[in-house]
Amino acid sequence: MNNSLQTAGILAIGDELVLGQKLDTNSQWLASRLTELGYEVITHQLVPDDQQTIADAIQTLMANAHLVICTGGLGPTLDDLTRQSLADVLNDKLVTDDQAIAQLKAFFKDIPMPKANLAQALRPAHAVCLTNPVGTAPGLLYKADSTIIACLPGPPSEMMPMFDQLAEHHLAQQHADNAIHQRLIHTVSMGESELATKLGSLMDRGNDPAVGTTASGLIVTCRLRTTGNRAKLDLIENQIRQHLGDVVFGVDDQTLPQTIISLLKEQNQCLAAAESCTGGMLGALLTAASGSSDAYEGGWITYTNEMKQKCLGVPADIFSQQGDGAVSQICARYMALGVLKHAPDVHHALAITGIAGPCGATPDKPAGTVWIAHASRTSEPDVRLFHFKGSRQQIRRYACISALAMLHRALTHAAPRRLVFERTPSED
User: Fold this and answer.
1) Which residues is 385 bridged to in the sheet?
2) What is the CATH number of the domain that holds 96?
3) Which span out of 144-158, 162-176, 296-310 was modeled with the highest average pLDDT?
4) What is the pTM (predicted TM-score) of this model?
5) In a 3-state reduction of DSSP, which class is residue 165?
């Protein structure tokens, strides 16, 4: 622990989080924001909706951190116990906050207010309420000596704006020398172990900036972190780009689909797609990017052999007993060329055909066998074979990311390289 930094602990409250019925995204978001503010986050904890358990967790965090942030348990129902737990910790009684009552009445001005919502106006006597600009649950704030406890609502849409208010008005900003700066550098087409080998001593423990890696769905991210001088991140980013070259596609919140859309727009080009086993997932990823309508024309979901023939002109004999079948190099090639034929204004076509599993697998074509083709107006189709590992959903997503990786390399004129999970037909 860096003793020059203020420390923070995060407590997420709710049975649904402890039981795995809902993902705790609040703690991840809060940890990132607190780090930006100059706090050293020392722990994340999950606790169920139990008054004593919540109180014990707050008490423990108070003994180890300067700032305690709790999320959840501020609703109007009987299992919302954060107010009572904080009152227990402070040896306090609950009182009604007049301003919170007024805000509740304003929220329900056009509809009857359920009586249960009045409980949301209660607070420990030595705490204050934090305004909720978008919901009914006020937050709670207790400050004493060097300790701050803040209780925020569980829904992210309410928690985030309330935290921003808290940060602006109540959380002491750290000195610039202690500010923690972070940067994410995203890569695709290279496995994590190969990437780490290329980075070499840049990843040594104790370096400043610190460099680590995280792999998620074929995207490997380099995590940079330094204290004080933000310019050090620029220096290390340049070194990482020199080591990794054309596998880098974005920084911080930039996604691969966003990068693809940006590259297409910069080159005044557009894309269409044909999908079989991915069932429209590729199109969904692309259209999630802002401005995608300027570069993505749309596509075909040709899930059956009949649709591949009717919509894309794939020859019927490919699906005969003597043919290579739908999951084959020639089928993927015809699908991509069919896109270019039936969408005469597009410059690029992507086609995906494979077996996501578990049904449909055969000994010679196991689940995870996927052919992906990229075709353009100016080059011969690039058709590649992949053997992905994982669940049906993972295989489908891997196929989409791999297709985008192929297009990324084409748009950036990158040197040929074998992608993650790629096989040659001779290895099949």
Assistant:
1) 371, 423
2) 3.40.980.10
3) 296-310
4) 0.80
5) helix
